[in-house]
Amino acid sequence: MFCVIIYHSFDADTPVYVFPTYEKAKKYFDRTYENYLNEEIANNSELDMDNCFHEDEFAKITWSDGESTEFILSYTSEPEDEYYD
Question: Can you give the pLDDT at residue 26?
Fold first, then answer.
């Protein structure tokens, strides 16, 4: 299993999305980062573009005030490890 974690430095809620395959998690990770970034650009947010980046399994959007949103793609466990009798 793989998860995508979206951490906002300005918010206590940290959503975690779980996927059965790396490919599905990666697709969600890439799409979500692009959607967040495009929304902030469309809203004329004051982004610190020098500190916004996207790598294979980590991405970050940073605003000029230092606040940020981080996107993390991580391995969690094998599916059978999730079930207990």
Answer: 96
Nearest to 16 by CA among 30, 27, 2, 26: 2
Nearest to 22 by CA among 43, 2, 48: 2
* 3-class secondary structure, 84: coil
Torsion of CA 59, 63, 65, 70, to 10 degrees: -20
| Per-residue pLDDT tens over the stretch 43-53 | 988 999 999 99
Query: How far is residue 20 from each of residues 7, 8, 85, measured CA to CA in Å?
Result: 21, 24, 21
Query: Which ranges of 1-85 would DSSP assign to H, the alpha helix?
Result: 22-42
What pLDDT is stored for residue 76 in this prediction?
Answer: 84
